[in-house]
Target: ATP-binding cassette domain-containing protein
Amino acid sequence: MSLLELDGITKSFGAIHALQGIDLTVAAGEAVGLMGDNGAGKSTLMKIIAGNFPPTGGRLRIEGQEVHFHKPLDARENGIEIVYQDLALCDNLTAAANVFLGRELKKSFGPIRYLDYRNMYRRAGELFGELKSETRPRDLVRQMSGGQRQAVAIARTRLSDPKLVLMDEPTAAISVRQVAEVLALIERLKETGHAVILVSHRMPDVFAVCDRVAVLRRGAKVADKHIGETSPEEVTGLITGAIEHA
Model:
């Protein structure tokens, strides 16, 4: 049984048909690369899976159970977390504070409630250790590299132990060394049984860590193939329209 199953997902904005009957499955421990040119429908599909808005038509299932998301919290409660391209981190806070942002641990002393920094630092440190990241809980985000920032964003998703992590262009605008760090984080998610959907324009990244690649063009899925059964040249042709379907 697939962890995530999309069946005939459509999305229209007035007269604009952004998605046209998308079918997609993702299994636990599997990474699927989602590729396509600008305007192909990748972001729209990710936002539907993440609960930002509902599809116009089609069905979404988690572990065989049909679900309906009306807000991001609905997706989170069903084990789906998303790491946006801009990461949505607070530069003036520590790594641990960003991991727990909006979900802070608290203690009570009589009528007084206060933040439990000790346990937040401890748990954040455990998460960074699980991800094999050198990021430290007390480091300020504004002093971090792009790879370390990604580690903070991914650790934040791990806080709720999600079944599926959506990643939107995680290796855009960072150095080669930092790209390697992020790809290692994705491999670590797979090893621990998490499913990943990776949206990326970077062909080498998709072929390095993904098990399958799905290609969207003008709101339709034109390919869904195992990495070993395709090539960067074929995927490029599918993205541009030089190859119609595969």
User: Anything to note?
Assistant: DSSP finds eight helices and twelve strands in the chain. Helices lie at 42-49, 72-77, 95-99, 117-130, 146-158, 176-191, 203-209, 232-240.
